[in-house]
Structure formats: C-alpha cells, structure tokens
Design goal:
The protein is an alpha/beta fold and 659 residues long. The protein has 5 domains: 151 residues, Rossmann fold; 101 residues, PAS domain (Beta-Lactamase, 2-Layer Sandwich), CATH 3.30.450.20; 68 residues, no CATH class; 158 residues, 2-Layer Sandwich (Heat Shock Protein 90), CATH 3.30.565.10; 117 residues, 3-Layer(aba) Sandwich (Rossmann fold), CATH 3.40.50. The chain has a 5-stranded parallel β-sheet, sandwiched between helices. Strands 9-8-12-11-10 form a 5-stranded antiparallel β-sheet. The longest helix has 55 residues. It is rod-shaped and about 150 Å long. The relative contact order is 0.06.
Amino acid sequence: MTDATSVLEALTGETTRPLQVLLVQDDREDAQLITDLLHKAAPDRVLLTHAGGLEHARGELVAGVFDAILLDLSLPNSEGLATFAAAQAMAHDAPIVVLAGRWDEDLAARAVRSGAQDYLVKGQTDGRLLYQAIRFAIERRRIERTLRASETSYRGLVEGSIQAIAILVDGIIRLANPALARLLGLATSDECLGRSIWSVIAPDHREMVAGYFESQSAELAEPNRFECRVIRADSEVAWVDGIATSITWHDERAIMATVVDISKRKRAEEALRRSEEHLRQAQRMEVVARLAGGVAHDFNNFLTVITSYADLLIREIGGPRDDTIADLQEIQNAASTAAALARQLLAFTRQQVLQPIVLSLNEVVSSTENLLQRLIGEEIAVTLVLDARMPRVRADVGQLEQILTNLAVNSRDAMPNGGDFTIETSIGDVDNDDERAILHLTGGYAILSVSDSGAGMSAETQARMFEPFFTTKESNKGSGLGLATVYGIVGQCGGVIRVESALARGTKFRIYLPLVSEQGQLPGTEPPTSASVGTKTLLLVEDAARVRLVMRRALEDFGYRVVEAPNEKTALKLAARHSSRIDLLISEAEPAEASGLGLATRLRDSNPALRAVFISDQSDDVMRQRVDAPPWASYLQRPFMREDLARTVREVLDQGDPT
C-alpha cells in the first residue's frame, strides 16, 4: 500500500485496496459459493483466503493480517459459540461475521453479545448483503478502536488531572480520579465509588450544593460554580472550589463535578481578614490612646495642684486641729487614688515603664497566688499550671502583677456563682505560620495564659474590650480601664495579647512575651533621698498658671529663688536680663517632647553650667528611652508632691557642674 493510499484511507475511512478476508469454512462447496457471491457483488474488492478449520485458520492469521473473518460455527471438532470463542482468541482484533446453516435467534443474540459483528444464514444471504456485512463489520471495529483510543486518552487526562473529578448519578459517585481520592483522604479512587456525595459535603453546605446540581440537571441558566467544605476520611475539613456540569453517563442523567482544594487560599484569606481586623482595632486604639494621653496630662496637672495645696495647708495649719488635718489627708488620699487611675491611662498608652528586669514568670505567678485567691473569693478555684522550663521575660514585676490582678477581677465578675480560674505558663512558638504572621511574632516566646469558666464575651464586646472606659458592668462597679491597662502593659513589654471567648463558654487570654535566657531576679528597693533646702536661682517655665503658682510656692518654701515664665519666648527674655546666673531650668516636656530640651540647649549657649528638670506625664525611664536625654537633665513624672519636686531639684543641682 502506497503512502498516498494510506493518507486517503486515513482521511475517508475507506480502503482503496482489496479487503483481506479470511473465510473459515470446512465445506468446500459452501466456500466456493461464498467466493462466487462476493466476486459477483464486489469484483476486485475482496481478496478471500479459505481455511478449512480452526487450526488452518490459526496458521493463516499468524502468516498474514486480515481485515475481517467470515466464520462458520459448525466445524470439525468445534460447534456453536465454542467455535466463535476459539476464533476470537486468535483473531488479533479482526471483526468476525458469523455464518450459520440456519437461523437461531438465541444463538445469534449470544454471538453478538460475545463480540460478533453480524449473524448471517447461509443460503439466505446474497453477495451484496455479504459484502455489506463485511464492510460494516470493518467500519464498526474501526469506530470501536477510535472510541477505545479516545476513552484511553480521556481516562489518562482524568486520571492524571490535578483537579478532583467525580461523576455522580443520583448523588452516588460512579467515577472518581486519584485526585479526588487524595482530596478525601482515601487510598485509591476505587474507594470513592458507591459513596454518597452528601456524606462528604459538610452538612451546612449540602443544601447550597444540591441547588447547584438541580439547576444544572434542569438546564437552567444558573451559575455552575460553587465553594463548599468537604469532610475527609480522617475527619479533617477541606475547602473546595467546584464546577458542576450536567452530562449523560451510560444513558443516565449525571453530574460531572470538578473541584480544586482551596484550603490554603481560604486560610490565607482568613489570616488576611483577621490581620485587617487587628489593624483596624490597632488604629482605633491608637486614636483612643492619644486621647487618653491628653486626658492624663490635664488630669495630672489638676492633681499636682490639689496635692500640693493640700500639703501646703497641712504644713500651715499644723497644731492640734486633728479633724482638719484628717480632712486634708483624705483629699491627698483621694488624689493618690486618682493618680493611680492616671497611671493606668498612661500604661494603656504605653507611656510608662517602671523597672524592667529579667524575671521568672513562674515566680511572679506563684507569688501572687494567695493575693489572687483572696481577690476573687473562695467560690472560685485557682489553678496554676507552670512550665517546668521556667520561662523568663524582661518586664516590670509590678506591671505583671497588675496584669494578673486586672484579669482576675475580670474573671471574678464573670463568675458570680463560682467557677474555675487557671493561670498557665509555657514556652514555644505559636500554633502555625498563619497565626505567626497575624501576631507578627519572631523568635521564642513565653506565653502567659489566663482562663476562666465564666459567662464569656460576645463578638461585639470583644471588638471593644481593650478600649479605655468601655465596660459592660454597672456604672458604679468598674472604671473600664482594667483590660485597657493590660493591653498597654503588654504592648510596652514588646508582646501581644489575644483572646478566645464565647458566651457561656468562658474566656481565655493568651499573652505572648519575648523570651529571654538570662536568670530571673526580683527587683530591689532603694531608700528615698530626702529633700533639702537650697539657695539657687531657678527658672520655672509652665503654661498652666495654677500649676506654675503652686510649684513656685513650693520651691520658694524650700529656699530657692524662682523666676517664672509662661512660655519659651518669655523665659528667654527673663534669663537674658536677670542679674544673677540661672542655676536650673524647670520646664514642661510635653506636648512637644523636645520643647523643654530645646529651650535648655539655647540657654546653655550663654550659661554652660545650667542644669534642667523636665516635667512629664511619663517616667524618667521612658523619657530617656524616647529622647536623647543629656547627662545634665532629669525628668519628674506628674503628679508629684512638694517633696518629690524639691528632692529632684536637689539631686540635679548636687551633681555638680556638668561637663
């Protein structure tokens, strides 16, 4: 066969060469009759080879290739379907047309079911019908080969697809590929067969998916793409993105579902959502923190005036007027309580650091156990679960105790009828990469967990729980600063705080603090330095007239000469024309942190021996961390007593001439 002939046959499906047909027939007269019929009906179109039996046919099939086989079922030593089975085994995929001496409907049906292409009765078949049967048999076999190749190719695509594919009939999986088995946590695709798809889809998504399937079966113009959760064999849950298509499968209406595992994408989306929510909360908290800092600043100014005048009156009254002195002391006590409230505001705004040291979380928790038990009452069981590895952090012990106290009070109020209160310490990383990205944590972390079995919090409450002055308690039972203070302290320590809570299911706070390897210690105390009388000249710069007046009176009482100014411009003029040298500048450090330092620097241009005390709502530790404080300056935190002011001034002046 030439190349041109091969191309023509491939394009048209028809052969231009004679058909090679093997006739298996033991009766020579019948064989000659069939030969004559084919020659007359299709001259030069069929090249017939005659074999008198199966063994003879086997030899011919080994020696040559045939397009079709004409098989008589009645042969020596073989009869009926046994003859067909033997011929089929040696046919090498050549189509077989059965020849019989008589019509037998049952035999014909069984022969066709076994693979025969046609069943003809000798004596009732002319040459044209015989040739047509051969041609149709060859064409059907060619189509079968094409279908098998197509099915093999299709199955290869399905089996090798990274997408999970399932064909469903009435919700039952009839076909599945390995990707679906992997998605469902099964070993092979055969394990998927016969399963109901509804046993795989999460219960709360079944109705939605059924709606998509029904719309496809009804050929409605509805979207065919959906997302749902599926339950794996190991009970793990996976998210999938699926497409449903209506098809016909073995003469039945079916749904072909193609799905892709999108669990990682869903986790990333959830992490992004949580991160955005945390960012929004942080932005809200930043605005509130600035407001709280401003409130604390003005509050401290008023408290400075109140405490200073109360102290002044106590000194002036003296004598036996005990009732009046007691009243004034009550004013001071109330002011001290208010000052503690201001310090909580400053802790929330992360503007207060006391004495950060390396300490053991276990020791801090253990030392507060008795206090916490008394605080929350006997109806609540306190349990400590402390990590034997002794997690250590750098923090202020008083602030950590305040965290535990505030959280204990919060838990007590959530368990009016008693319950469980548990404090745990541990070392380790957060649970997974997504949580690590959300928390912005690096390195090792100590985890302080505080949980209760109380009423829990709603999502709305959790969204605002760290806001200062926000409280769900009655107006006379809480300031709304407990959790805000905890939030601020944790932030100052370089950590983060997260909460898990649900109504009627309790609350658990997790505080992540940077882990340190140094040995823990408890802070020591130093005896206070007593105030003494001085004779130096001081320049007092303060824009609040009431505060300036009380400070001037206090300083003058301690023997200092005071030059006062409401602002920097006036201070520069007074210093320039003052007859004696200014020994010390006392100036407001806020709201612009460098304002006092800038004024002092300008004054030192003409008076290098000048020293300074800056008044701030923040501690000396914090101010020295936030600004490049020179050795000739110190900070005094508001509110302060007269002795605090005098002591600080004396300490700065006693340092000698600055270098």
